[in-house]
Amino acid sequence: MRRPAGALLRRGLDRVTIYLPIILTFALALGTYWLVRNAPRLLEASAPTAPVHEPDFFMRGFVVKNFLPSGVLRSELFGKEGRHFPDTDTLEVDEVRLRAVSDEGLITHATADRGLSNGDGSELQLFGNAVIVRDAATSPSGRPVPRLEFRGEFLHVFVDTERVTSHLPVTLTRGADQFTADKLDYDNLTGVANLQGRVRGLLMPSPAAAAKPPRAKR
Description:
Blueprint: H1 5-38, E1 57-67, E2 73-85, E3 90-101, E4 107-117, E5 123-134, E6 137-138, E7 144-145, E8 148-158, E9 163-166, E10 170-174, E11 177-181, E12 183-187, E13 192-196, E14 200-202, H2 207-211
Antiparallel strand pairs: 1-2, 2-3, 3-4, 4-5, 5-8, 6-7, 8-9, 8-10, 9-12, 10-11, 11-14, 12-13
């Protein structure tokens, strides 16, 4: 006896409905597997490498200015060409020039063939024909401040603490007096110069002493 076509269709749909969750689960598994196979791979963590001393940027004909928290200009660094090294956060400068202002308003100039500044500009190392000059001036208290000059092949300037040091021979000129030494440590805040090694000095008489007439011998 033949079954009606409608009954066969309903029976088939019932069987499909029974197996439908299994079919959907299988299809979902296949889709997930396909996505995983075709998804872009995550970047593998690379092994840490040692920092390389290479510049990350260059500057030409530049000036770098540093200011105090109050907004007052502390120093200006000029250079013909500069190279920044990220591993040490230092700036190497060719034909460097520095202009710095002390807490008393005294102006200091520095020049050299090459300079090396730290990240915040508080230290500057001068190499080759290094010269530092503090102009003669009058302090806020009215005290005359003589001209001061340092010369050598290497000078280390500490801008914030107003110090100049050198482990190489240096010539110090203060007013008309001149000194030479193998090593130098000068503190501008105290006005004390610590000279070491072979130290030589040439002291000139002050104008007041030179103007006094010699005493006659009896």
